[in-house]
Design goal:
- With 371 residues, the protein is α+β, with helices and mostly antiparallel strands.
- The chain has 4 domains: 83 residues, Alpha-Beta Plaits; 83 residues, RRM (RNA recognition motif) domain (Alpha-Beta Plaits, 2-Layer Sandwich), CATH 3.30.70; 78 residues, RRM (RNA recognition motif) domain (Alpha-Beta Plaits, 2-Layer Sandwich), CATH 3.30.70; 76 residues, RRM (RNA recognition motif) domain (Alpha-Beta Plaits).
- The protein is built from 12 helices and 24 strands.
- The strands form 8 sheets. It has a 4-stranded antiparallel sheet with strand order 2-3-1-6.
Length: 371
């Protein structure tokens, strides 16, 4: 027999794309019109208490949750169309890729509602999302079906079809690990070679002559400007990976017209973008780690300590860029932040100030991870 907790989980909806001003009270008034609501939680930032843009609604009855999903999905609340789906707590289902479909080259006018209506014909949808930013749709989306059969039907029927004025690609979703594995496989089997830094007097025939000794060449192309002059780079495509590999190993760094050539594997745009994205993400992580290392979370603050008093106590350890004592209705909540310009300054301040009595309480200081 199904226990009560399991039943309530089944009657739980995820509410996404919320306006920051949407509150639990507002959602309760809306969803209680379809049936008894057990609880509503708008998810918020731990420190600032600002809405993260999504919430969970727990109904008493499964039928009421289904009714809300059927009748209220994409309703406009505070100027934004909300996005409803079943609350999926099973991490395996979310991450396995089963039933997940990736769509790209979407017309920018296609929104979440249009996407849902278009793909719901193939089976029950657990979730769907057009990816967007401040400028609107980013031109791609994801649809997660309840089962793989529905996903396969959607791929078969929709791949290559026109939605609005755009021919869309619809295929199975691949997680980052799978995509990176594919790129690695392509990298180890390349046949196309990219050559640059050979000046403006190169043409196709001369480039072919230079590289023909490494194997059979399928095609050669020197990129030119509108006047037919070489732009200093081009491509050579071999019929085998071995030939391309030999060309790269032998010719990279060799001088042509007094200039050292760069010769390497020719990358597709998606590969270049993936490498750049990985590089930027790594830099971003390092920058975030650096910021976090310079940011202290101060707990157990005496109620008399305000921003200025806190800044004064910590200023002797270095350049303080920001101080904030968290308040509610004008009263200290007993914790705050102190941000230094360097991790070394923050580390010194933590070592000296942790446990020191300020006002009437000993400070409890830690690196502000995640804040």
């Amino acid at each position: 027999m199904m226990n009560v907790a399991a039943k309530y989980r089944m009657a739980s909806l995820y509410v996404g794309d919320l306006h920051p001003d949407v509150t639990e009270d507002l959602l309760f008034k809306k969803f209680s019109t379809v049936g008894p609501v057990l609880s509503i939680r708008v998810c918020r930032d731990l420190l600032t208490r600002r809405s993260l843009g999504y919430a969970y609604v727990n109904f008493l009855q499964l039928a009421d949750a289904q009714k809300a999903l059927d009748t209220m999905n994409f309703d406009v609340v505070e100027g934004r169309a909300i996005r409803l789906m079943w609350s999926q707590r099973d991490a395996y289902l979310r991450k396995s890729g089963i039933g997940n479909v990736f769509i790209k080259n979407l017309d920018k006018s296609i929104d979440n509602k249009t996407l849902y209506e278009c793909f719901s014909a193939f089976g029950k949808i657990l979730s769907s999302k057009v990816m967007s930013d401040d400028q609107g749709s980013k031109g791609y989306a994801f649809v997660h079906f309840q089962n793989q059969m529905a996903a396969d039907r959607a791929i078969e029927e929709m791949n290559g079809k026109f939605l609005k004025d755009c021919k869309v690609f619809v295929g199975r979703f691949k997680n980052r690990r799978d995509r990176e594995a594919e790129l690695r496989n392509h990298a180890s089997e390349f046949t196309n070679v990219y050559i640059k830094n050979f000046g403006d007097d190169m043409d196709d025939e001369r480039l072919r002559d230079i590289f023909s000794k490494y194997g059979r060449i399928v095609s050669v192309k020197v990129m030119t400007n509108p006047y037919g002059k070489s732009r200093g780079f081009g491509f050579v495509s071999f019929d085998s990976h071995e030939a391309a590999k030999r060309a790269v190993e032998d010719m990279n760094g060799e001088a042509i017209n007094g200039q050292p050539l760069f010769v390497g594997r020719a990358q597709k745009k998606v590969e270049r973008q993936a490498e750049l994205k990985q590089m930027f993400e790594q830099l971003k992580k390092e920058k975030i780690r650096g910021r976090q290392a310079a940011k202290l979370y101060i707990k157990n603050l005496d109620g008399s300590i305000d921003d200025e008093k806190l800044r004064k106590e910590f200023a002797c350890f270095g350049s303080v860029s920001r101080v904030k004592v968290m308040q509610e209705e004008g009263l200290s909540k007993g914790f705050g932040l102190v941000c230094f310009s360097s991790a070394e300054e923050a580390s010194r301040a933590m070592a000296e100030m942790n446990g020191r009595i300020l006002g009437s309480k000993p400070l409890n200081i830690a690196l502000a991870q995640g804040y």
